[in-house]
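B., you asked whether I could sanity-check this one before it goes into the benchmark set. Here's the sequence:
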Amino acid sequence: MDARKNRNEPFAPRTGDRQIDVSVLLNTTIAYVLMIAMELLVIARAILRPNREPTSRIAWVVVIAVLPVVGMVAYLLFGETSIGRKRVARMRRVQARLPSFDAGIPEKDEHLRPALPDRFVPLFRLGKTISGFSAVGGNRGHLTRDSNDAIDCLVADIDRATTHVHICFYIWLNDNNGLKVAEALQRAAERGVTCRAMADSLGSRALIRSTHWRDMENAGVKLGIALPIGNPLFRPLHGRIDLRNHRKIVVIDDWVTYCGSQNCADPEFRVKPRYAPWVDAMMRFEGPIARQNQHVFASDWMSWVDDDLNALLERPLRSDSSGFAAQVIATGPSSRASAAPELFASLMYAAREQLLITTPYFVPNEALQAALCAAANRGVETTVVFPARNDSFVVAAASKSYYRALLDAGVQIHEYGEGLLHTKSMTVDGDITLIGSANMDRRSFELNYENNILLCDRALTAEMIRRQRDYLADSRPVTLGEVDAWSTPQRLWYNTLAMLGPLF
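And here's what the prediction gave me:
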């Protein structure tokens, strides 16, 4: 009887077991509450972050809520455009000390304050709010033939330099063209020319770690490293590791300057040879516009190197009575957040007859996509040329998600097949050209330091249009029928990657 009764009784844990169960339950509850609290704090941070599009806020909130651990880590690593408080503070101190470019223009040199066509005045006024430079006249320029010609012209200018050479590149390789420039700098330094060379810590890491970098230093070239990474494990604690100096700047004797898409490398671009050749465009300028690029270089240089260049910027500005109007427009994560998209969209809205664009990376925000469609919808001949094969499969897929809307609006889309079209250019109505380092994607808009030149000149714009039409001749048009033929998995892939664009 007692045995049957015992068999029917429910199991009763011993006192020690009960204490263990309660302890585990308590610890689990505390961990869960802490996780929820951390999740809510990160979500709140994502929502409260200034200068962020609503789509980006929504995307981050969804990711953090659905994948708490992964989402929080991803947000802390990639969710904010910060290079670190100390770095930003130093940059602002440097920029506050820089002399004003406009204050250095003598009143007697009226040609340096050019009279622009009324409808283009707002474009240059917008540019001034970004970098602080007014349009300056008295410039001349030409478009180099190709990547190798650009390097040859640059080396020749360095060999003719008499006072100083300043260079900044995102990617500087120790290949044929890269070493040509390095050797030219060494020759110039050895004959007494002050040479300063800066390279991005990530993009040019192979050269920076090589003997060629030390050879330049031994020859007397002053060297600087932009956005040094340091220990990659601790770098995220002080700012995003993927915020880079993407600029390509050359200033020689305060009179010659270069601007465009080209890095200091061979077109074969041996770090990514399967996409070669990389097809770039580089313009060589002479005139006061060089001083504006000098300002941008000085700002970058003094932010990382203890070497004050203010005396160079205070020198009387050289001038020439003839030449076109131009303006340097430099953007970056420490400048106005919407600067680059505002510039691109304003140029599109200014077009009345023709808008020609080349860009390798196209992941626009909503405003830019709308501006591009609006140009075609109001009857502007609108043409965009992308590379057929892109070194970034993510960007290549995301960009295709925008094709249908562009084609429906009447935008002509072409894909260049003779290499990776790396040229970043825009021409408007045969009068205006924008050329530089900025792509039409979120990385260039929000994360990278970029440098562009906006110019008003029919002759030089005609040169740029001829080059753009050369690209078109080696491209194939994308049709609505082709886009409609994409399979459901393809469209799902393209649209999913585009949807994730606001996260980064």
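One thing to flag: The mean pLDDT is 90. Otherwise nothing jumped out at me.
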